[in-house]
Amino acid sequence: MESRPSVGAPTPAEVRVLDGTVGRRYDPVDSRVIRRGPDRRHLLLPSLHALQDGIGWISPEALAELCARLEVPRAEAFGVATFYALLRTEAGPRTVVHVCDDIACRVHPGYRDPAADTGHDGEEPVGVHPSPCLGQCDRAPALFVQRAGDDAARLTVTGSVAGALAAEGATEAPPLVVAAGPAWLTGRIGVVDPTSLEEYRAHGGYQALRTALAMGPEAVLREIADSGLRGRGGAAFPTGVKWRAVAASAQRERYVVCNADESEPGTFKDRVLLEGDPFALVESMTIAGLTVGAAQGYIYIRGEYPTAEERIVDAINQARHRGLLGSDVAGSGLSFDLEVRRGAGAYICGEETALFNSLEGYRGEPRSKPPFPTEVGLFGRPTVVNNVETLHNVPVILSCGAAGFRAVGTAESPGTKLFSVAGDVSGPGVYEVPFGTSLGELLELAGAPASPGAVLLGGAAGVFVSPGASDVPLTFEDVRAADLTLGSGAVTVFDGAADIGDIVERITAFFRDESCGQCVPCRVGTVRQNEAIVRLRSGSAQPGDTDLLDDLDTVMSDASICGLGHTAASAVGSARRLGLLDGAGARP
Amino acid sequence: MSTPVPIPRRKVTVRIDGTERAAAEGSTILDVCRDAGVEVPTICWAPTITPVNACRVCVVELEGSRTLVPACSRRVTEGMEIRTGGDRVRASRRMVLELLASSVDLSRAEADILRWLEEYGTDPERHGPDRARVSEPVRRHDELYVRDYDRCVLCYKCVDACGTEAQYTFAIAVAGRGFDARISTEYDVELPESACVYCGNCIGVCPTGALIFTREFDLRESGGFDPEAQAVTTTVCPYCGVGCNLELHTQDDEIFRVTSPDDHEVTSGHLCIKGRFGFEYAGGRRREGRTEADPATDRDESSSA
Question: Domain A500-577 adopts which CATH fold?
Answer without folding.
Answer: de novo design (two linked rop proteins) (1.20.1440)
